[in-house]
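thoughts on my protein:
***
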Amino acid sequence: MSKLPVIPSKLKYQTLSHIEATPNGIRFDSRIIGYSGVIRQLEAGGFDSSLANGLLVVAEIQLADTNNWFSPSDEQMAIIWRWLIACIFIHEQQDKNGMVMVESEDGSTSRAVLYAGEHGGIAIYPSTERCSLATHIEGIAIQKYGAEAGLQRAIQLYQGMAESDPDGNALRLSQWGREGLTMLHDDFIKMLNTEGIPAAPVAH
C-alpha cells in the first residue's frame, strides 16, 4: 500500500512559513527539526493553529520518504494519517458551516469551526477530532486485530477516507470517509441531546 499521502503541490490553503524537507529534518525558516520531532509536534497539536502549515509539513515528510531520507514507522504513519483526516474534515466543515464563537469556563471566548448535522451543531477542534479518530479507528482495529496488524489496518482505513479532488489540487474526504465522520458526529450530538454532557471527557 502507499506509505504516505501524496499532497498535491498546489495546496488549497495558504501557508505562511518556509517549510522544506532536508536529509536531516524539516527546515522551518532558519532552523531544522528532525522528522520524528516534527511528527510528535503534529500529534501534540503544534500545528493546530496553522493547519495549512501542518499540511505542508505532511507533504515534506512524504518527500523525505520518497528521497529515502526518512522512513516513518507504522505508529508515525498512523499519527500522520490521523492528523491529515482530522485536518481535512475541519477544513470541509469550515467551508460548509463557517465558524462560531465559543465561551470557555473562565468566561473567555474563542472561534471554532462549526459542525452542523442531523441532530444539531457542535464546535469542533483538531485535537478532539484526532482523539475521536484514535479511539474509533485505531482503538477498535487494535482491539480486533492486535497491536501490529491493527495499526496497519487503521492506516489502511485512514487512507480510504481521503482522495484527491477532481482537479488534483487538494485532498478531500472520500464519500466513505465523509459518511463515517458524519455518522460519528451525529451520534455524539444525539447522545448529548438525550443524556447531556458526560461526566468524563468523551471525544467526538
Summary: The radius of gyration is 17 Å. Helices lie at 35-44, 51-66, 74-97, 126-145, 147-160, 175-195.
